[in-house]
Amino acid sequence: MRHTLSIVVADQPGELSRIVGLFSARGFNIETVSAGETPDPKWSRVTIVTRGDDRTVEQIVKQCQRLARVREVQDVTMQPHIEREMALIDVAAKPGATRQEVLSLVAVFRAKVVDISESGMIIEASGNKDKVEAFIELLRPIGIRDYTRTGCIAIGRLSRVDSSRAATEEEELSWPVDERATGDVNKPSPSHPFSTG
Amino acid sequence: MIAQAQLAIPPATMPQSDVLTQPRGAEILIQALVHEGVDAIFGYPGGAVLHIYDELWRARNRITHYLVRHEQGAVHMAEGYARASGRVGVALVTSGPGATNAVTGIANAYMDSTPIVVITGQVPIPLIGTDAFQEVDTIGITRSCVKHNYLVRDVRDLAPVVHEAFHLARTGRPGPIVIDIPKDVSAARASYSRLKNISYPCIDRRSSPDPHVVARAAAAIVQARRPVLYVGGGILNSGAAPALLAFAERLQLPVTPTLMGLDGFPSAHPLCLNMLGMHGTYAANMAVAESDLLIAIGVRFDDRVTGKLATFAPQARVIHIDIDPANVGKNRAPQISLIADARDALCALLEKIESFGQARIDESVSGRAAWWERLRAWQQEQPLRFSGAADHIKPQSVIRELHRLTKGNALLVTDVGQHQMWAAQFYPFQKSRQWITSGGLGAMGFGLPAAIGAQLVRRDEVVVAVVGDGGFQMTNQELATAMQYDLPIKVLIMNNGYLGMVRQWQEMFYERAYSEVDLTVSPDFVKLAEAYGAFGVRATRPEELSDVLAAGLAHKGVAVMDIVVSKEENVFPIIPAGGNSRDMITEG
């Protein structure tokens, strides 16, 4: 099954490859990996999404835990947590009806247009993996030229009470159809491309 | 890069002194090594470590450097030193080929949990990544076979790194540490003061045995009708042999050690079933196959022990005690897992069991009478044995004779192959750290240099390197090292003119197609010994064996005993790879 691991490791050269090496040494594929700083800049947080049976993933967690520069490893899969990833999608949407269709999808998915030209636009979308993938699938027939994805980041929920339901409700509200997002889709948002969002 | 000092280690004090009066990185390194109690370094110089060798020359009264003849030998010597003494062994090599030659030893130490620190030179920082002369990515190459490694980019990090490296090497499950030092870092200057009372929050996760788990384990052990203690190298690393003996005797539990744990329990003790696994005894493997409770301590359910995992100890519940959580549940999911040092765990278990009272202990012991009857029957049914021969020397008889002549007191160091298994089977060990072998990696060439490192710390003991004619030729140049430093190892070559273990597998599983195993063209090992200035002696007939071994062992200096043994003798019993105890072949 799919596992999301959250690892706090010293922000030093080579430490990320030490972690990643544990996966490749066991023939494990990493679905996504993303790294960034934590409130204490000496430490970074690495989020790795991988697929594997629970026992093998547990072994990798243990192997990670014994690395000398790893402070903590959590398999957050079973804990209440929030996962997000971002995608930058280059869509071949020329001015006209195609572009209008793309913009309406952008509104529905609460994405935003971050660059635009005669031949197309670049759209920034974020959400959980399913939402981002659904968005990409809807854009695909229109003509995706390229896209790049950050991979998943995760953080534990503040409240552990009934939080799994909270996660579900939130996703129901925002995706796939957000009934509140029915305003003028052409109206530039504050983070419109020209406002250097 | 963030200075290491900022991370886990308090920064070294920085007095406002003239920079030029401060020591060079190389001197800081030597100082830090001295403070770690290092008295010996096995190494080989080269361009990237010239500053360090310059300081070693100045510090020659405090640290003795042993010049090896190949870097693989340096690391194996450090391993032999570590395994014979329980201290951290140190090797020093240059960049590029020095580092790559050291990798076999580093990987060996990783597989066998041996605490060593390997210092490698590196090209100067500005040249890193430019394909400079003798540059390799040592950190990248060794990453998957070290407990940790460091590239020291700032001379101020050097001392904290060295201290942390030693701490890390010997803490928890021991292992090898690589410190890669660019040449300009060993030349740069910084202050050095000895660091004390450092805490390493990411490293020091050792906890005392969980009393709830100990209670469950103790109850399971007392209730078990067919228990077996399956013990390994962790017993030696934790110094748990006395605790194991006390525990096993108190409850009259049968003990079977792994190859790495052979000297963790007296081989001739009535409770000892001797080695288990691929070449283990019939009794040990049958006991595990029929056991209802496997008490696994300091072991990792290696494939050479378990064979086919799915059918290993099929009736047994498992208590797994190990200091490394990553070892527990890796191959076999235990019913009870206890993450702890082996000695702490055994002491806690014994204390808990004592609290049950004598009556319950007596009941537990007497409840296993039937189990012991079966164990004894298996021991009698298929003891380790070999047939004699009139016209050639049986390799097993060489080990038996070595045991007799050394009164069972030699420190045995082996290489890898058939001779290793015969030594494991036919030399009963009496005490801890009497047996040094390459277990996990199975690195041919280990025996001779490891014996040199061991002899260094066990000066007054007989150290015998039992090697094959194949493995001997992988590192025999280290005879020069033994001669140079007067380390009087005794090399016993079990010479069958073959790569014997491979030949045995070809005989048994490849229809005797002896593909590339013939070593008939080898040097005259007696003359080779003499060429190095060592004593050489040879036996080819059974009646010569005793005198030849006695002469070699009695020689004051380095001796090479070339024992020409049966060409096509096989190691028995053997459980073919991926099999289980039912597939055991006990004779040819």
Roughly what percent helix of chain A? 25-40%
Largest sheet of chain B: 6 strands, parallel
- Tally of structural domains of chain B: 3
Main beta-sheet strand count, sense and barrel state of chain A: 5 strands, antiparallel
Could you give the topology of this structure?
The complex is a heterodimer of chains A (197) and B (588).
Chain A: E1 2-10, H1 15-25, E2 30-37, E3 43-51, H2 54-65, E4 70-75, E5 81-91, H3 97-108, E6 112-116, E7 121-127, H4 129-143, E8 144-149, E9 153-156, H5 163-174
Antiparallel strand pairs in A: 1-3, 1-4, 2-3, 5-7, 5-8, 5-9, 6-7
Chain B: H1 4-7, H2 25-35, E1 40-43, H3 50-58, E2 64-67, H4 71-85, E3 89-93, H5 97-111, E4 116-122, H6 138-142, E5 148-151, H7 155-170, E6 176-182, H8 183-187, H9 211-223, E7 227-231, H10 233-238, H11 241-251, E8 255-257, H12 282-290, E9 293-297, H13 303-306, E10 317-322, E11 336-339, H14 342-355, H15 358-366, H16 369-381, H17 395-405, E12 411-414, H18 418-426, E13 435-436, H19 447-457, E14 463-468, H20 469-475, H21 479-484, E15 490-495, H22 500-509, H23 525-531, E16 535-539, H24 542-554, E17 559-564
Helix pairs in contact in B: 2-3, 2-7, 4-5, 4-19, 9-14, 11-14, 12-16, 17-18, 17-24
